What does this fold into?
Amino acid sequence: MGEWSIEPATVESLPDILEIEEACFSAPWTRKMLQAELSGNPFAHFLLAKQLPQGESGSVSLVGYLCFWVVFEEVRLMNLAVVESMRHKGIARALVMQALETGLAQGAVKALLEVRASNQAAHGLYRSLGFCNVTTRPNYYTNPIEDALLMELNPIVPKTGRFTHEFGRGGEGIRSLQ
It folds into this structure.
């Protein structure tokens, strides 16, 4: 299975992020959009999930990422993707929990996100972290056209009373948000 780690993204990570973006989404963000988030948006944060090498000859590879904003008292989860071969290993959960912890450290008290109405795996992950359905946004997504479910965690308090995780361990993951 291998171990993995979570770390902040850099502009040098853009080609790998773009590759995952294009593999996971039917309407992917463009290079220009991703670059603007990485280097031009003062509210944006990017986290990377990297698979660590197994043995001396292996190399580190990017297996997922999360783009999120911390704006005043709010964490907004923007884009989350995990490569198909690495799903259901706890990577998406770890990325979201790290984003929530970062938001808390910066004074955020709630978190919001939109997710495709058909993405049941993502709904399950977010509900397991305490997110609740707020409303539906009709025809929010394109390619194909689909409603978005707006979900909120308010306040940012995990069900267990605190966020705990060990990066690199197994657990529940999700399919990419689409």
The first strand starts at residue 4 and ends at 8.
